[in-house]
Amino acid sequence: MAGTRQEKDSLGTLDVPAEAYYGIQSLRAKQNFPVSGLRPSRYLIRSYGWLKAACARANVDLKGIDERRGEAIRSAAGELADGRFDAEIVVDVFQAGAGTSLHMNVNEVLANRALELLGRARGDYGELNPNDLPNRGQSTNDTFPSATQVAVLLVLCDLRTAIQQLASSFRAKGTEFAKLPKAGRTHLKDAMPVTLGQEFTAYASILDHQLEALPSVEGALAELPLGGSAVGTGINSVPGFRALAVRYYAELSGLPLRVARDPFETMQSRWPLALASSWLRNLASELVRIANDLRLLSSGPATGFDEIRLPEIQPGSSIMPAKVNPSAAECLDMIAFHVVGADLATTLSVQGGQLEINVMMPLAAHEVIFSATILKNYLPVFARTCVDGIAANGPTMEQYLLGSTALATVLTPKLGYLKVAELIHESEKTGVAVTELLVRHGLMTAQEVEATLGPASLLALTEPVR
Fold it and tell me: Does one domain contain both 210 and 332?
């Protein structure tokens, strides 16, 4: 057939596009799993390229591969890591168990590119077979989780920067709004006053706390099963391969990678991915809460809180003129909802392993990397298009604050809980302000009321008790 080359694997022969760097096993996977149209993340392809380059270098050093072919494989792996062959990674993220499809896609691309560098034709597997030299001392079972964990480390590094940016934006707003007292709310009912700045500084603080929990996640991910080969014994690898390959992998990635303390554990369990996923879920849960606070505080203007105004980034209705919605916060909610749902899929995948391998690795890999990626992509946008442009609506906040019966709480040390409750109920029934009732019932003078509940005293009520 014109434009093809015939390749053979253990199941038979197929015609592969002549110009393709991928081979017969990749083609089978492409045909067998036309599921989502989603391809593996650039983070995962890059980390797999570095892994294969590290393994090729270790094998050459330890005489597991001759230098001529080993260096060709190493060079091809470097090109894969740099993105040259992204289009040649053709398998769907939903694929055969354990990630064998992606692993062989990588091996075939490396073999055919190495053949090309050696002056041989693509598909000349007698000279360099994808299952042999690019795979020497390796298997899907140790390379796929290792590449996945490195990919997650890479995207978490980028996500850390994005979170820091968002926290900085909230902190700046906290400073800007530091002297703006407003009615606090608990159970969505009137409560004691806070400042708008305190609310925004708290948003920054929770993001800081999320970042403080990240190093433990990164530490777990840095312990790799690489070198365990099929079941943890390192079958078919040359002595010293495990430690040397991990060392070279750390050099290429710039990450503090280390050899697994128990290679059998790291073949069986994917708990580091579960840990990363749960951290992402916790982050997402806080982001949902923050986004919904901003939506609530900006609701209205005529029928909602209207205490803050979000930047108007696009029209909000196809039928109601001039309507503008909290679109950025809504988008953040949907991203975070996906992350929370992905954590369940990851949890099921991680517990889905049996004995010496977890065959559900591809799903866990996709969900964790994708979740971190969409957060990394959007948080800086959210900071720029939403948080940085938020404005306070001072008159509305002052109106709500001065009209809040919750302020009467400061009277309880003087009048007692029950008496203050009676005054509040009377105010709600009659429409007469608590401040006026205090004077009318001879409980306080007008001067005492002003000193206790007047506008000048409200900011002091927002100061934390030391």
Answer: yes
**pLDDT per residue rounded down to tens, the chain (466 residues):** 459 999 999 999 999 999 999 999 999 999 999 999 999 999 999 999 999 999 999 999 999 999 999 999 999 999 999 999 999 999 999 999 999 999 999 999 999 999 999 999 999 999 999 999 999 999 999 999 999 999 999 999 999 999 999 999 999 999 999 999 999 999 999 999 999 999 999 999 999 999 999 999 999 999 999 999 989 999 999 999 999 999 999 999 999 999 999 999 999 999 999 999 999 999 999 999 999 999 999 999 999 999 999 999 899 888 988 899 999 999 999 999 999 999 999 999 999 999 989 999 999 999 999 999 999 999 999 999 999 999 999 999 999 998 888 888 898 999 999 999 999 999 999 999 888 999 999 999 999 888 888 777 877 888 887 7
Characterize 400-435 residue by residue with b for buried, 16 or more Cβ atoms within 10 angstroms of its Cβ, and e for exposed.
bbbebebbbbbbeeebeeeebeebbeebeeeeeebb
The CATH number of whichever domain residue 73 belongs to comes to 1.10.275.10
Query: Would you say residue 466 lies in a domain?
Result: no
Catalytic residue flag (residue 26): no
209 and 354 together in one domain: yes
Q: In the listed set 136, 153, 169, which residue is the last one of a domain according to the structure?
A: 136
Give residue 429's domain range.
Answer: 403-461
**Are 300 and 409 found together in one domain?**
no
Instruction: Point out the catalytic residue in the list 317, 404, 427, 457.
Output: 317
On whether residue 203 sits in a domain, the answer given is yes
Is the domain of 305 the same as that of 429? no
Of 395, 421, 436, which residue constitutes the final position of a domain? 395
Single pTM value for the model: 0.94
Domains held by the chain: number: 3
For residue 450, what are the contacts with CB-CB under 8 A and spacing of at least 6? Answer: none
Q: Is the same domain home to 83 and 10?
A: yes
- CATH number of the domain that residue 410 is part of: 1.10.40
Whether 153 and 42 share a structural domain: no
